[in-house]
């Protein structure tokens, strides 16, 4: 994985992609955000930084960056596709479907699960970006007064 302090040009060259203005700008926006962003949020952030690209260009850039493992695409809730810069090779989350809160999931725990799946089923799991959804035990959006 590229280091977070590498320039967008270096990151793109290292991944085999051309360093276009749109790709460099999207990398900068995703790195600065450090959050999941929808395409509209990426476009809005680009506009705030003085860059304007149409929606189809931003989708294409995100797809290109995802294809070489620089960006993770997740569907955290029905209809919401979000994108995030990946700063390490294995990147996992748990997300509450009630309140939407997203927390990091320990890679060591995921790797233990993957090992158990392999031992029990002889199946090689390829999980570099995993999102598990469910309801948080102490979710603030859930009524706990039974």
Describe this structure in words.
By secondary structure, the chain is an alpha+beta fold. It has 2 domains: 8-85, Winged helix-like DNA-binding domain superfamily/Winged helix DNA-binding domain (Arc Repressor Mutant, subunit A, Orthogonal Bundle); 91-134, Ferric-uptake regulator, C-terminal dimerisarion domain (Dna Ligase, domain 1, 2-Layer Sandwich). It has 5 helices and 5 strands, in the order ααααββββαβ. It has helices at residues 8-15, 21-33, 39-48, 55-67, 107-121; strands at residues 71-77, 80-85, 91-96, 102-105, 129-134. The strands form 2 sheets. It has a 3-stranded mixed sheet. Strands 1-2 form a two-stranded antiparallel sheet. Strand 1 and strand 2 form a beta hairpin. The protein is globular, with a radius of gyration of 17 Å. The termini are far apart. 16% of the residues are buried. The model has no long low-confidence stretch (mean pLDDT 83).
- What is the terminal-to-terminal distance? 48 Å
Helix segment tally? 5
CATH topology of the largest domain: Arc Repressor Mutant, subunit A
Shape: globular
Averaged pLDDT:
83
Helix content: 40-55%
Helix-strand category: alpha+beta
User: How many domains comprise the coordinates?
Assistant: 2
The helix-strand sequence is: HHHHEEEEHE
Count of DSSP E strands?
A: 5
Architecture of the largest domain, CATH level 2? Orthogonal Bundle
Largest sheet: 3 strands, mixed
CATH top level of the largest domain is: Mainly Alpha
Rg computed from alpha carbons, rounded to a whole number of angstroms: 17 Å
What's the CATH H-level homologous superfamily of the largest domain?
A: Winged helix-like DNA-binding domain superfamily/Winged helix DNA-binding domain
Strand order of the largest sheet: 4-3-5
| Proportion of residues in β-strands | 15-25%
Name the poorly predicted regions. none
